[in-house]
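Q: Given only this backbone (288 positions), what sequence would you predict?
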């Protein structure tokens, strides 16, 4: 029930006990006869989160400082306060760190399925477990350039940067598949394995470099974005370094993996020689 006094009586709290309330029979009764008045402080708005009463403390960071860095710097100072909190009270970190943790959990749920599908597609293309392993071990080549680019650009490694790292691994393995497939194609045409490695690397160097440059240049507009910037920086730096490493490491790794020697040669089958029917064939006979 909500009771509202007239305007002249609303500012005088001492008049609340004498506030009259009409009963069901229409008889006015003072409020003090049917209720006990008690004055207490109460929050005007109670915020709840997951059915718990919550008090949110928010703050902005200055330009040039990343929110995860600020949270990591404040966390040790809040530990003493957390230890002194009574039972039922706790302090949780929200903002970008909380959202990144939620996104990582959602990504981890689908990551096994993504890995299985990726391995299945590579197996269909390569049709060899040894070549599949060779392609798969080249995926971490992008970590060198991605880490250096994030450090130079002063960008955090969060969920968006993780997405860029996953996309970067796919680009690197694609370049490796192109080189390995070209090497196998040259070997099938009769080239020695050593010469096939050299020729395939030289022949595929320009397409690999040009596609990498196209991807790097395409990420430049996103590099200055607050949200997509870490992903763009990860792809740009990782792909730049990984492209060079792919052209140098993959041929050497292929030769090491399949034990290719420089002096090995594949003997080509001799072509049959046609002999005219009207010609006599003289064969030398060694006398004993």
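A: Predicted residues:
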């Amino acid at each position: 029930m909500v009771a509202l006094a007239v305007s002249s009586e609303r500012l005088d709290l001492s008049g609340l006990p004498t506030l009259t309330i009409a009963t069901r029979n229409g008889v006015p009764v003072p409020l003090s006869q049917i209720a006990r008045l008690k004055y207490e402080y109460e929050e005007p708005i109670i915020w709840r989160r997951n059915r718990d009463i919550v008090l949110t403390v928010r703050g902005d960071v200055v330009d040039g400082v990343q929110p995860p860095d600020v949270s990591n710097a404040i966390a040790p100072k809040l530990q003493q306060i957390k230890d002194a909190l009574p039972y039922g009270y706790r302090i949780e970190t929200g903002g970008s760190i909380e959202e990144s943790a939620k996104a990582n959990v959602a990504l981890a749920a689908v990551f096994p399925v993504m890995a299985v599908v990726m391995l299945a597609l590579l197996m269909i293309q390569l049709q060899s477990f040894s070549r599949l392993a060779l392609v798969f071990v080249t995926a971490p080549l992008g970590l060198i350039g991605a880490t250096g680019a994030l450090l130079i650009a002063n960008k955090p490694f969060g969920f968006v940067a993780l997405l860029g790292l996953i996309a970067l691994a796919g680009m690197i393995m694609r370049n490796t598949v192109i080189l390995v497939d070209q090497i196998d194609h040259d070997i099938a045409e009769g080239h020695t394995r050593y010469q096939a490695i050299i020729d395939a690397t030289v022949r595929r160097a320009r397409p690999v470099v040009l596609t990498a440059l196209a991807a790097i240049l395409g990420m430049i507009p996103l590099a200055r974005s607050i949200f997509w910037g870490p992903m763009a920086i990860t792809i740009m730096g990782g792909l730049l370094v990984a492209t060079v490493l792919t052209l140098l490491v993959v041929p050497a790794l292929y030769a090491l993996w399949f034990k290719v020697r420089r002096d090995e040669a594949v003997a080509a089958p001799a072509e049959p020689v046609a002999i005219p029917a009207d010609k006599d064939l003289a064969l030398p006979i060694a006398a004993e």
